[in-house]
Design a protein that fits this description.
By secondary structure, the protein is mainly beta. Helix content is about 10%, strand content about 45%. It has one helix at about 15-30; strands at about 45-50, 50-55, 60-65, 80-85, 95-100, 105-110, 120-130, 135-145, 150-160, 170-175, 180-190.
Length: about 190
């Protein structure tokens, strides 16, 4: 249900039930705190602690999060998405991609480094500018064992976003060679308002 611009009524103006429903009921539903089936407040954050890994060769969906229609409806609104995971200690190429709807934003990780305990943190911010442009910033931090130095990678890009007036799903995928080359330990999504 879309947001309706508020009406300023004047004295002696006749207001019908459709206008009252639109101005009060419909707009209150848009403003209502959304609560997921699991009881979490969607406007605060949504998380999953599911441990998932890629399956065989090819691209595997690791985590998804559905955004209801109009989740991002005004310039400056956005999402921050955090996830933690681990890359296998082998020379296989391991790539993690981020999607907003069907739009592939970037390869957030692409590594074939054979490091033990190659733990990563992905921090992605997706900011809605208007129906034509959106900005995406991401940072990846690695912390490997065996004395290897932690490293960081980051990027910033402007993209043509999907239409947020309809529901959109965000997702992380893993592209690797063998099962569990990539493990992701959960996802947290929170709004930027």
């Amino acid at each position: 249900m879309p947001w309706h611009d508020p009406i300023t009524w004047t004295p002696a103006q006749t207001v019908d039930d459709a206008e009252l429903n639109e101005q009060i009921r419909d707009n209150m539903l848009v403003l209502k705190t959304r609560i997921d089936d699991d009881g979490t407040h969607r406007t605060l954050f949504h998380g999953s602690s599911d441990i998932v890994g890629n399956v065989d060769a090819g691209e595997t969906v690791l985590h998804t999060f559905p955004l209801p229609a109009y989740t991002l409806k005004a310039p400056g609104q956005g999402l921050r998405i955090l996830t933690v995971g681990e890359l296998a200690n082998n020379v296989n190429l391991k790539t993690i991609r981020f999607y907003v709807g069907n739009l592939a934003i970037n390869n957030l990780i692409s590594s074939n480094a054979p490091l033990a305990n190659n733990i990563f943190l992905l921090d992605v911010a997706f900011s809605y500018t208007n129906w034509v442009f959106a900005r995406c910033w991401a940072q990846t931090s690695f912390d490997a064992a065996s004395g290897a130095s932690p490293s960081r990678e980051h990027f910033f890009t402007t993209v043509a976003p999907p239409d947020f007036r309809a529901g959109v799903t965000i997702k992380f995928t893993g592209l690797a060679t063998t099962t569990d080359d990539i493990k992701m330990y959960g996802i947290q999504v929170e709004p930027i308002r």
